[in-house]
Design brief:
It is a single chain. It contains five helices and eight strands, in the order H-E-H-E-E-H-E-H-E-E-E-H-E. Strands 1, 2, 3, 4, 5, 6, 7 and 8 form an eight-stranded mixed beta sheet that branches.
């Protein structure tokens, strides 16, 4: 079973509704903005970060247009310095490749070590556009259902105003 199939199976198992739009592969937010997506909502940005010792890993999900001050976020999370995790770590912890980062990647985190951070502003969006563990489609899901998915899967969840 592919990681995409696994993510969709878990959403179906939890009874979480979603819609899926297929498209050409995209690797950046700029490329996402060029797609003629039909979903009624906002595409999110996903940052896979690690602390300075590489012991803690964070998947930060925020509105696509936002920028994050990593020093400020470090203080909010009570951790040492934050930096972007390598592609090798992304594959190891979430089973994902660059350009396909998504909160649905936690279905590949059997040890539940990746800490998910959701921007509080996401709650005010009709639907969130996220990848289904690959960058050739966008999955539309409500904020409440995304939060429920993370909680039910068992990863740590923090909601912050970023």
């Amino acid at each position: 079973m592919s990681t995409r199939e696994k993510a969709l199976a878990v959403l179906n198992q939890y009874g979480i509704p979603y819609t899926l739009e297929e498209h050409d592969p995209v690797y950046t937010m700029e490329e996402m903005e060029q797609l003629p997506l039909e979903g009624d909502g906002s595409v999110v940005k996903n940052l896979f970060l690690k602390d300075s010792k590489g012991k803690r890993h964070f998947l930060v999900v925020l509105m696509g247009h936002k920028k994050v001050d990593l020093k400020l976020l470090r203080g909010m999370l009570g951790t040492s310095g934050l930096s972007f995790a390598s592609e090798a770590r992304l594959q190891k912890y979430l089973g994902l490749t660059k350009g396909a980062v998504t909160p649905l990647g936690i279905v590949n985190d059997d040890a539940h070590c990746v800490e998910v951070v959701l921007d509080a502003d996401l709650e005010h969006t009709t639907a969130l556009g996220i990848h289904p563990n690959e960058n050739t489609a966008t999955l539309w899901i409500s904020y409440a259902d995304l939060e429920r998915f993370v909680r039910e899967w068992g990863n740590s969840l923090t909601i912050l105003t970023l």
